[in-house]
Amino acid sequence: MNRKFGYLPILFLLAAGCPSTAPGPDSGVGPDGSMQPFPDGSIADEDHDGLCDALEVMVGTDPGSDDTDGDGFSDWFEYVNRMGPLRSDIPERDIFIPMVETPEASVSRTFTLEVRASGEDFAGHFAAFDAGDPLGITAADFITGIEADFADPPENVGMVFGEMGVFGGVTRRTVLGFELGMAYGDQPPRRCIRAFPFEVIIKSSLGRTYLREDRYLLILPVGETTRTGTWCMPTEVLCT
To answer: Is 178 in a helix, a strand, or coil?
Structure first.
């Protein structure tokens, strides 16, 4: 299912309306570069979910619970991505690709489409979006590439440039498969849950977009799920 991301343009700006409780920076980053689950309390945020108490009262979420609807996704994450923090049936789980934060971890997903072509080429692309990470990390730091994986029937394809993600000279009715690869690599462990938005796009050499699907790479601490782990905090507590 296609779903356009609905990021708030003022995602990490602080605004009036939330009482201060203690001075000091609220970077969310530890001395080793890891993202810490809890800020220093410079903005009143009782449940430490990244939404200040006054904002939670305004939108109807529970200032005392970091996951008001109990679906395993923090109020902050659902609020900034317009996913309904008061509805446990949102977000749909199939938009998430989970991966454990260990150096050897890797995952892949196949995206398929059926085309009716007359000799044009088809190429896979991806675009990563800002995830509010204090270190500026996005899904692009984990994606290893998108490859041209299979064609059915194969004789309808003139050439396959696998690692380039391109099927060349496609004719007639053909199903094309593109494989997106992701690996954790040498990223430092954060010990909290993160979700990185990205989009997979498949276009023809004529400039037509045949597929556009939004996904989130969901990074989980070892041994945790979205219901048992703690979500990472953004750089600053959101109050607008």
So the answer is: strand
